[in-house]
Write a structure and sequence with these properties.
outer membrane lipoprotein receptor (LolB), chain A, twelve-stranded mixed beta sheet
């Protein structure tokens, strides 16, 4: 079917609003990344839930400590340390610690703010306004440009002061992970060994080096 002048005109009229929407989403993401960076050391509670479609598969809660790229997570199921390059994931049930060099994409399903390291390249994004605790908030939707990307979709709910409070991530066809954060405290100071595996505390742990 040939495009009529009316259809072409309608299409061109729609372009500016779409572009503005994209620009607004990028602006919110940029402000969010800047806000998180300004908080320096952060302590926050978290809840991570996995889904297949809408069917919940499991959930865990705990506390996270963040300082730039570094973080430490504490939950009943696993303890994780990341010093900006190396990650140690300790499993109390098996007394094993897995050592890896994770990519930002691999961290996305556990680190609530990992999206700030990947959104600038390889993703399209749109945004809509939502309500959070009676106040205006934002939901930014990121879609991978590459269908082979590890992370295909990310939905980030961001408060009016540019703090993410819910992040949903899709891997594969229908595997979703939701991360919710609460009781965030910024401007925390941590010792330099906060983000490295304390070998002396777990002398009998089996080390599985996957680097």
């Amino acid at each position: 079917m040939k495009a009529t002048p009316i259809l072409l005109a309608a299409a061109f009229m729609a372009l500016p609003s779409f572009a503005q929407k994209e620009a607004a989403a990028r602006k919110v993401l940029d402000k969010t990344a800047a806000t998180l960076s300004s908080l320096k050391g952060v302590k926050t509670g978290f809840e991570i839930t996995s889904f297949v479609g809408i069917a919940e598969q499991g959930s865990t809660q705990g506390t996270m400590y963040l300082d730039g790229k570094k973080y430490r997570m504490e939950s009943p199921d696993m303890l994780t340390w990341y010093d900006g390059e190396t990650q140690w994931a300790y499993l109390p049930e098996t007394n094993e610690v897995n050592v890896t060099h994770p990519t930002p994409e691999e961290q996305q399903t556990t680190h609530p703010y990992a999206f700030t390291a990947i959104y600038k390249k390889g993703y399209n994004y749109t945004m809509k306004q939502v309500n959070h605790n009676g106040e205006k908030a934002y939901e930014v939707y990121l879609k991978a440009e590459n269908r082979e990307a590890d992370i295909q979709e990310i939905r980030v709910n961001i408060s009016s002061n540019y703090i993410p409070y819910s992040i949903r991530v899709r891997q594969g066809q229908n595997n979703w992970t939701r991360i919710r954060v609460n009781n965030l405290q910024g401007k925390q100071k941590f010792s330099k060994d906060t983000f490295t595996f304390p070998t002396s505390k777990y002398p009998d742990a089996e080390v599985i080096d996957l680097r």
